[in-house]
Amino acid sequence: MESSDGDEDRIYSNSDTSISQSISFDVFQNCVAKLLKFYYCDDCILPSNTNETDAKYIDNQISYQDFVVQFLIPNLPCKFASQFTESWRSRKEWVNSEMKPDFSFLKDHFGMAAVPVANCNYKVYNSQHKEEMYLENYIKYLETVKDMNWDFSSKPCLYLKDWHFVRDFPGYSAYTTPIFFTSDWLNEYWKKRTDVCDDYQFVYLGPKGSWTPFHADVFGSYSWSANVCGKKKWLLFPPGDEENLIDWKGQMAYDVSSPLLKDKNYYPKTSKLQKIGIEIIQEAGEIVFVPSGWFHQVWNLEDTISINHNWMNGFNLHFIWKQLLEALNNVEKEISDCKDMEGWSDHCQVILKAHHGINFKEFLEMLDCVGQRASTEVESFLRSQIKETPSLHHFPWHSVLDLILVVQGLKLLLKQPKVSSDLCRTTSELLTQLLSTLKNVENESLSELLKKLI
Known about the structure:
Elements: E1 11-12, E2 18-20, H1 25-36, E3 56-58, H2 64-72, E4 78-80, H3 89-93, H4 103-110, E5 114-124, E6 127-134, H5 135-147, E7 158-164, H6 165-168, H7 185-193, E8 201-206, E9 211-215, E10 222-229, E11 232-237, E12 278-282, E13 287-290, E14 295-300, E15 304-311, H8 317-334, H9 344-356, H10 360-383, H11 396-415, H12 421-443, H13 446-453
Parallel strand pairs: 3-4
Antiparallel strand pairs: 1-2, 4-13, 5-6, 5-7, 7-8, 8-15, 9-14, 10-13, 10-15, 11-12, 11-14
């Protein structure tokens, strides 16, 4: 992958002021060089820059290495312009001439799909009550409240969320295909890097006034959210800020727009926040990138359809591990009265899997999947006699980074005393194998290797 110069790949802020030229080859080479030494440091964690006050706006081409350096490594949000989704079928076929959701098309094509619908007025713990209904019936509800001018005084405010569209309709994946960039790098990256959550394309359909409670995405994953039509308001909080949004009972805020947040008796720590979130207004066609561990809340300012996707890679591995440990601690507290029972730790792992979605075993399986693939790609590349720059679509240099960060994940597992002896043995074997591949990488001249890898 070659870096670009000049006016190409320029990034702009919301005020259209230029903030950065394309990252040069030397800058990116230094970035990769530092990461190649990363696995020597047992406790190294990639930094998160929490001093940003605005999400950057990208309205022109951006290379993948620029995206890595400016957003993935510092773990910062950004917004992509609508031009990157212009070719999506969903933006053409799901929208009527008024640029509103085309209820007739959706009902005719997907009416018998069973979809999850949340009641925005009905709080269950720190979420909204959900029930399943056919899309056809949900659209009939939308048509009814539309005729009432979206007056929810006599009708509940219902929001279709987390519809696994691609899973339910595999023949319709073209509607949600993530080809954001004409250079096609993100489409290829998406295919190669979504080892977990690879079929999790979610569709959201909600009327003006619907909203999601304050939350962070599953497992500490990254997410894309693309507006097919409509407008949204986001408030995003960098990792750590959520600790200042806990009420006097120890409960996380449910609605960060609530006037109670200004009451120190209810929320004693909110005064520590520099501001109540980074605000993003997302127009039709625009895409919001939400980094790992960023809590957020979203409101639909118009009738809106959006497509979301969650994914993980080496850069957010430490967030995933941190959330997994926090979830395990919560499980252990809940069943602490049973601590003397035989196999208590194993029972905790079973409950962790049911409650959080993954446990230590699944975390290791994820590392094994990513690590084995990356190791195979790197060894194959090192054996080759190719001297020219590889194709844009292969990213062998990213496989090196994946290897380094998977090694970090394995070391985190081995340092955790709650990991079983069997799991430790399997982890050690995988670690030895991947370190051997990285040793082969070291044997190459770093400068020459980077020239081949980038």
